[in-house]
Amino acid sequence: MLLVSIDRPPAGRRARSVGVLLACVVLLLTMAAACGKKTGETTPPEPPPPSRTRPEEPERPRPAPTGPQLLLRGARVMTAAGVVYPHGDVLLRGDRIAAVGSELPVPKGATVVDLRGKVLTPGIIDTHSHIGVYAAPGLSAHADGNETSAAVTAEVWAADAVWPQDPQLERARAGGITTMQILPGSANLIGGRSVVIKPYPGLRSIEDARFVGAPDGLKMACGENPKRVHGDKGGPSTRMGNVAGYRKAFQQAVEYRRNWQRYRDKKARWEAKQLARSRGEASPADEGEDGKGKDEDPPDPPARDDAMETLVGVLDGETLVHMHCYRADEMSLMMDLARSFGFRIRSFHHAVEAYKIADRLAARDVAASVWADWWGFKAEAYDGIRENAALLSAAGGRPIIHSDSAIGIQRLNQEAAKALFAGRRIGLRISDDEALRWITANPAWALGVHGEVGTLEEGKLADLVVWSGDPFSVYSRAEQVYIEGRLVFDEGWGDRAPRSDFEVGLSPADLERDAPPPVFPPGEAAPKAKKDEEDDR
Q1: What DSSP line would sit under 495-536, residue for residue?
Q2: Do 352 and 419 belong together in one domain?
Q3: For a 10 Å CB count at each end of the chain, is N or C smaller?
Q4: Is 5 helix (H, G, I), strand (E, B) or coil?
């Protein structure tokens, strides 16, 4: 029996219609009048005008790069940070980028890789994947993405279900993916915590894959899916019920947080009394008539609740909300609901009608993780247009091209290219650098890891892709992929490339093997567990 994630609709295509095109042009003119800004072509070495006026969040200081040095020489370097070097160099030192520029001096002892004729970009980041929780092959035993036992399951964590030997991870890596968010599905109003991973080869557990320091994420879903799944299981069965369910869950979280704050206040007062008594400074009221003091027990804490802990993390701004939402009216409603409880939605996912409220999304700094051209597979997806990402970009927003597909994740560069050229066809001036940000810098921001990845800048983690040509060409391939300075994919490895034990099918070379195919890249042994490394230090 084959199962498909509820979040994974078929990739429908729609012919262009004159009506939709005219609507796009009218919307473009309206936003242009309101925003008064355009995105220009990048002309190196001068950076283009900034595409958004809001201040970026401050980044934490990055550690100084240390370790072996690797100089990637002579490629067309697309930084996704506003500068393109026609013949540029990137120096890696250990797991970080030590320098980016043209004609960099070769440090003593550095290994030089000649990349003339190639293109170098940051690693691709996918904000929406179910690889690992809907692993291949698609058996019922591998369907671990939706905990449908209740409409609100904030207590579950996708990390507890990710299967690290999923062969789909290899294909994502070969497509240039260096960071990905694994989410629960969209069956529930609140589906649980996500996990951000690095798709290294040879993963043995989720701990080998975690992006260290990435904030927790929370998957939520509005619209058709929750009411369809839970309508005959006690609800919700309408969009009214959906919204009532969010309000109830977050109100419970407010009360839970309040109860814990009361407990902490009581405990602080109790501890202060004990300290005063130990110093002989207790008040007469605390000591009692006999002078022996009242025998007062410490307050009892409230019961811990994993679901409420997750939602309190959202209220406190520590957990980032990623919300499956298609329609513009529902996105507006959810932004207002979130504001009423004092939190923000980090990114709407799928968001096929985001272009209708592009100005609101930009003003509130809410990202939109969209497809290039999926539409029409259900009623709430009927108003999807190919110009969605470009119109969001023109409004100064944060468009992101995501996959929600184990197939689409292999070609996110081509998905971004489709969205880019759809925008250019209606007259929008979107630079290659800006479109590259749709699959690098913007998703890094949405996941809260923009201080570490997403652009090629000094001090950031060395996540890079070497392309055979223009990354927006259907003819280009990812030839090499680096994660944190380590070569994890090389087209030249051939049959020596690492492979999951659960890969389906045999190649001709497999029939002649004397040993199983490698799990780790050529010349590498299994990495030590993190605990072992700490013990060694």
Answers
A1: GGS---TT--S--TTGGG-SSPPPSS-TT-PPPPPHHHHHHH
A2: yes
A3: C
A4: coil
Within a domain: 489: no
First to last CA, the chain: 48
144 and 224 assigned to the same domain: yes
CA distance 360 to 88: 38
Decide if pLDDT at 537 tops 60.
no
More confident: 499 or 158: 158
Which of 152, 226, 214, 154 has its CA nearest to residue 181?
Answer: 214
CA distance 519 to 501: 8
Tell me which residue of 485, 459, 347, 465 sits closest to 59, measured CA to CA: 459
Looking at the structure, tell me whether residues 387 and 508 fall in a common domain.
Answer: no
% of the chain with per-residue pLDDT over 90: 74
Counting Cβ atoms within 10 Å, is residue 517 exposed (0-12), middle (13-18) or buried (19+)? middle
What confidence tier does 501 reach under pLDDT thresholds 50, 70, 90? confident
Dihedral sign computed on CA atoms, order 383, 385, 391, 397: positive
Residue 457 is inside which H or E element, if any? none
C-alpha–C-alpha distance, residues 271 and 262, integer Å: 14
Among 446, 477, 494, where does a domain finish?
A: 446
Per DSSP, what are the bridge partners of residue 487?
482
* Site of tokens 């994420």: 217
> Residue 530's pLDDT band (boundaries 50, 70, 90)?
low
**Can you say how many angstroms the Cα of residue 73 is from the centroid of all Cα atoms in its chain?**
30
Q: Does any domain span residue 268?
A: no
Lowest mean pLDDT among 50-59, 101-110, 189-198, 345-354: 50-59
pLDDT of 34 > 60? The answer is no
C-alpha–C-alpha distance, residues 262 and 320, integer Å? 26
Q: Is the pLDDT of residue 16 over 70?
A: no
The Cα 124–Cα 174 span in angstroms is: 11
Q: Whole domain around residue 157: which residue ranges?
A: 124-237+308-446
Q: In this predicted model, what pLDDT tens digit does every residue of 387-439 receive, in sequence order?
A: 999 999 999 999 999 999 999 999 999 999 999 999 999 999 999 999 999 99
pTM of the model: 0.86
Cα distance between residue 243 and residue 251, in whole Å: 12
β-sheet bridge partners, residue 490: 480
pLDDT band at 496 (very low <50, low <70, confident <90, very high): confident
Domain-embedded: residue 47: no
